[in-house]
Specification:
223 residues; alpha/beta; TIM Barrel; eight-stranded parallel sheet
Amino acid sequence: MSRICPSVLSADFSALGDECRDVIAGGADWIHYDVMDGVFVPNISIGIPVLKSLSKKVDAFYDVHLMITDPAKYVDDFAGAGADHISFHIESQSDTAETIEAIHAKGILAGVALKPATPAEAVFPYLKDLDLVLVMTVEPGFGGQKFMADMCPKIKKIRKEADRIGRKDLLIQVDGGIDVGTVGFVAEAGADVYVAGSAVFNKKDRGEAIAAIREAAGKASVK
């Protein structure tokens, strides 16, 4: 089953609670919450206090993507602030296996994210323990970038390896340039969780936008 996850990077931050309520009412499955530290990626976004406030006011599944240098240091704080799932980058300074274990110890889902230049094989040793792999289809750091279609073979490799080791339940998420025109490529490759920013938040009717992305993904995934 496909999951549509609007990214708050494209929301109106002056009305963030209302923006999140609107997309949830429109059929969004998760709220994608991007955290950037200005070091691991060349941008700074939002962090623990905003998530804590938001999660108290808006009932949603919070999908937290940590684009930070030392994610292990902040697992407890983000879990305590309301994260239901935490993804961190395999390219970060934190030990991958230990960070996965720390996330699971908080009773939430754990994911590992890969930058475009990182090969699929880098995540293979951890697939047995992960709930999700996030394949970046743009360079992390800024919203509104152009979708990188050459990431589709990476998605296929991860899906094939997950199936081979008996992890057909592993979720593969894609983030970057996802809209009605691009979601079919990643769905056909084996992804089933789709982060969409401007393709949802920049639309007048968010429910219609979410439904259109879900429909396009569904058509492609059954080919």
